[in-house]
């Protein structure tokens, strides 16, 4: 009876997670990241160069974005006509920009991103538990098959196939699930592993990592009672993320609180631009920029940044 109840629980959670992963539409950037009609006209009218850079700088001036392209340009999508939020990428299969895109999964025929990443993790977890449960309960009959303890019927070949299928899927799912658990602990996406995010001053592969606990809460939320259920509980809006700039630009203003240069790599410092209210509570126990430092930072960005050039990304 206990095995039968556990079987149905695993199966229901597996189907529920799979359903949510498939049919949850990936979130697109909000309207504020889209260029206005006048900016689109200016961008199309001006030749590719400094004039277009100025249009993009003006459009991104008040947006909570900190990442750039490899050449230092504002991340812009010429297919969706928008300034890309941090961790947003254009999916060539879906033909649209996906917030916090991890990858496009052919097994679910959907993009895995901010809106369904938690569902995808739970789908992997419950799939793994389901396969392990089947393999464990079928093991005794599999042993009897090799010891000729089963009746000589066609059913014994079904038992052998079921055990091998469950065992092989368990191995593949365990490696994939373990990999994504590591991504969650480091607050990275699959795309960011292959190409580290580039901030205004330099590339920082751990730029979005806030520590294991906060990284976990970003995906699963603050309410632990919802962690194991396929209901959306991730923090934030998908457009802005807390970020720590561990390696600061040497020309940047001095760190707040009297921190000297030797302690820069030991403290997580945050950008001058304010985060959304939905994300700022993650940083309540970390020193933030003072208003004076923020103004100095804004003043130096225009002078120290390299010339921005348009560059398209996928």
UniProtKB/TrEMBL annotation:
Sequence similarity: Belongs to the DHHC palmitoyltransferase family.
Notes concerning its domains: The DHHC domain is required for palmitoyltransferase activity.
Region (Disordered): 252-314
Residue span(s) of domain Palmitoyltransferase DHHC: 74-193
Pfam families named in the record: DHHC (PF01529)
Predominant place of localization: membrane
Polar residues bias spans: 252-264
Keyword terms: Acyltransferase, Membrane, Transferase, Transmembrane, Transmembrane helix
Catalytic activity: L-cysteinyl-[protein] + hexadecanoyl-CoA = S-hexadecanoyl-L-cysteinyl-[protein] + CoA
Domain of life: Eukaryota
EC numbers: 2.3.1.225
Protein name: Palmitoyltransferase
Location within or outside the cell: Membrane
Gene Ontology CC annotations of this record: membrane
Regions that span the bilayer: 6-25, 119-137, 157-179
GO molecular function, one term: protein-cysteine S-palmitoyltransferase activity
Keyword Transferase included in the entry's annotation: yes
Membrane topology: Multi-pass membrane protein
């Amino acid at each position: 009876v206990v095995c039968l109840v556990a079987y149905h629980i695993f199966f229901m959670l597996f189907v529920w997670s799979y359903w949510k992963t498939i049919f949850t539409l990936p979130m697109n950037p909000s309207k504020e990241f889209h260029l206005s009609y006048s900016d689109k006209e200016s961008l199309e009218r001006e030749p590719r160069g400094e004039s277009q850079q100025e249009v993009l700088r003006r459009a991104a001036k008040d947006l909570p974005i900190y990442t750039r392209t490899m050449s230092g340009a504002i991340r812009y999508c010429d297919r969706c006509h928008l300034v890309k939020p941090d961790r947003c990428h254009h999916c060539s299969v879906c033909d649209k920009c996906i917030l916090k895109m991890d990858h496009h999964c052919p097994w679910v025929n959907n993009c895995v991103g901010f809106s369904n990443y938690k569902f995808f993790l739970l789908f992997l977890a419950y799939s793994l538990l389901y396969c392990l449960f089947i393999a464990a309960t079928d093991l005794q009959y599999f042993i009897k098959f090799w010891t000729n303890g089963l009746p000589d019927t066609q059913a014994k070949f079904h038992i052998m196939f079921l055990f091998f299928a469950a065992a092989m899927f368990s191995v593949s799912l365990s490696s994939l699930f373990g990999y994504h658990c590591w991504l969650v602990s480091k607050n990275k996406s699959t795309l960011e592993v292959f190409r580290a995010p580039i901030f205004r001053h330099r590339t920082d592969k751990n730029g979005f990592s806030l520590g294991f606990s906060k990284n976990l809460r970003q995906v699963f939320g603050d309410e632990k009672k919802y962690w194991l259920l396929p209901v959306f509980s991730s923090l934030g809006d998908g457009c802005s993320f807390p970020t720590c700039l561990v390696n600061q630009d040497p020309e940047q203003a001095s760190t707040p609180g009297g921190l000297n240069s030797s302690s820069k790599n030991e403290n997580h410092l945050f950008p001058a631009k304010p985060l959304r209210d939905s994300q700022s509570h993650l940083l309540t126990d970390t020193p933030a920029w003072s208003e004076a430092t923020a103004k100095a930072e804004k003043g130096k960005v225009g002078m120290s940044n390299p010339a921005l050039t348009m560059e398209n990304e996928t």
